[in-house]
Amino acid sequence: MNSEPTPAQDSPFRPESRARDTAPQFVLPLVVRVERAAPPARTDALETAARAVLLMLADERSLGDGPWAQAMRAWQDARIRKVVRRARGAEWRRAEALPGITVTGKAAQVRVFPPVPLDGWPKDLAKLQVSGTDLDDPEPPAEPDGAAPVLWMSPEVEMSAGKAMAQAGHGAQLAWWELDEEERAAWRDSGFALAVRTAGVERWRRLTGGGLPVVRDAGFTEIAPGSCTVVADHPALQRT
Fold this sequence. Notes:
The protein is α+β, with helices and mostly antiparallel strands. The protein has helices at 42-58, 69-77, 89-96, 123-126, 161-178, 181-189, 201-208; strands spanning 26-33, 81-87, 101-104, 109-112, 116-117, 150-153, 195-198, 214-216, 228-233. Strands 1, 2, 3, 4 and 5 form a 5-stranded mixed β-sheet that branches. A 4-stranded mixed β-sheet has the order 7-6-9-8, sandwiched between helices. The radius of gyration is 17 Å and the shape is globular. The protein starts with 25 loop residues before the first strand and ends in a 7-residue tail after the last strand. This is peptidyl-tRNA hydrolase.
């Protein structure tokens, strides 16, 4: 699944073939902790994954001459792939021992790692399961805070929790690219406050036509190429 701002017309989430398709392909690994007796709520996992992506983008190790910067540049020069796998118990402890960032939500825990070649995953991550990450919300999530950014998920596309986590990360990344340095600093200072919600059909139609960043999936897994999956509704990006 799929640092410099990228023009919307050249979004790496578009399905069309681009020069970035011929570049070496990298992937951003994310691992969600799913203990058998206490799995996280779906919305909590999606929001935590989105924040994890933002923290990786903003981390000083990802910038300039930082130890992760070269991998981050190589990843962003290709299609922006993200893959979410799940771990529990000893698997999670081994994942935490690898270089990365662990982000904790209300209860969810997600660890994000520097990008790796598509076929070059670390052994302890490569053997984790990518399928079967099915999470539910015990109660419908509350209405989002009107002052915080919202990543609106499509009401028309069904996705596993793992796929939706990756798409939420895409939406957060597109919003980050569109912000100027002052807006990025303000978001970072808020702890990357955000909400992930599924839009109603009418709201979705307004959002996709409102000039906000839209994730169009490349179609590598689960859904058709070009499917609109997320709209990044950051207050600083609202056109009206």
